Amino acid sequence: MSTEDKPLDQRAIDEEGIHWDQDMSYGSYLSLDKLLDCQNLRTGAHDEMMFVIIHQASELWMKLCIHEIGAAMREVENDNLGAVFKMLSRVSRIQGQLRHSWAVLSTMTPADYLAFRDDLGQSSGFQSFQYREIEFALGNKNAALAEVHRTNPRRYDRLQKVLHAPSFYDLCVGQLAKKGLDIPPGHLDRDWSKPYVPSAKVEAAWARVYSDPEEHWDLYELAEKLVDLEQEFAMWRFSHMKTVERIIGYRKGTGGTSGVAFLEKALQLKFFPELWTVRSEL
To answer: Which of 129, 157, 133, 126 is nearest to 68 (CA)?
Structure first.
C-alpha cells in the first residue's frame, strides 16, 4: 500500500518514527504483566473486580505516602525544612486520591457487596500493614495494633521499628526546640512507642510561631503543611466511614471490628493535636 493510500491516522503514526521494538518498553518498565495479573477474584460477582482494584490501588498510593513521609522525616532531622514542604504537599494530594477512591467504591450497592462478602473471610482493611505504618509514622502510636502482623516477621519487625522511633510530629516538636522555643524535656526524649501527650508548652510554642510568621516563617509553613495533611487524612477517614455505612450499615466488619462504630472513633484521633487547639487560643 502506498503512503497516499493509507488512512490519515496511519500516515501520521508512520511519520512519527515510533520505536516498536525496544529493550525497555512501557509494559516492562512498569512490570505490567505482574501488576495486571494480581487481581485474583474468588467469585463471579461483577463488583469484586472493582473492589479488589480499588484496594490494590490504595495500597500503591500508601506505598508512595510511606516513601514521601520517610524522606520528609529525614529532611526534618537534617534541618532542611524547605525540602519537606513539597513532600508534605504531595502526601496531602495522595490522601485526596485515596479519598476519591471511596466515591468509586460507593457505586456498589449492599446487594452487590453481599454477592461476594462472605468469600472475603476475615480479611479486612484494618489489617493493612502499610496503613498502620503511616499512622505510626505520623504519631498515632498503639502497640496493640501491630499484633495482627506478628505472624509475618518481616512486616511485624518493620512496624516495631517505626513504633519505637520518633514520629514525624515528634521530629517537628524537636524543630521547635532547635529554633529556641520552650519545649518540655519530656517531649524531646521519651519512650517513642507511647502515644503522644499534648502539652500546654508545645501549644504555646506553636502560638508564638503563628503570632509572628515573619520571624518563624519556616516553622509557620511547616505547621500549615501538617494541618493540610491531617485535614486530608481526616476527610479520607470520613469518606471511608460513610462508604462503609452506605454499603453495610452497622454490621460488624469482616476483620472483627464493630465496623462503622469503630471508624467513627478513628475520626476523633489527632496526629498533631496542638496545631488544632492553638487555633482557639490565638
So the answer is: 133
Q: For Cα atoms 96, 62, 72, give the angle at the middle one, nearest 5 degrees.
A: 90
> Phi and psi (nearest 5°) for 153?
-55, -40
Q: Cell numbers at residue 48, please?
A: 469484586
Q: Tell me, what amino acid is at 28?
A: S
pLDDT per residue over 219-262, tens digit each?
999 999 999 999 999 999 999 999 999 998 988 877 767 778 88
Of 258, 229, 260, the residue nearest 244 (C-alpha): 260
Angstrom CA distances, 169 to 135, 233, 250, stand at 11, 15, 34
pTM: 0.90
| Residues listed for the chain | 282
Q: Which three cell numbers stand for residue 152?
A: 509475618
pLDDT of residue 11 exceeding 70? no
The Cα–Cα gap between 205 and 174 comes to 11
Asked if residue 241 lies in contact with residue 173, where contact means CB atoms within 8 angstroms, the answer is no
How far is Cα 134 from Cα 126, in angstroms, rounded to an integer?
13
Cell of 1: 500500500
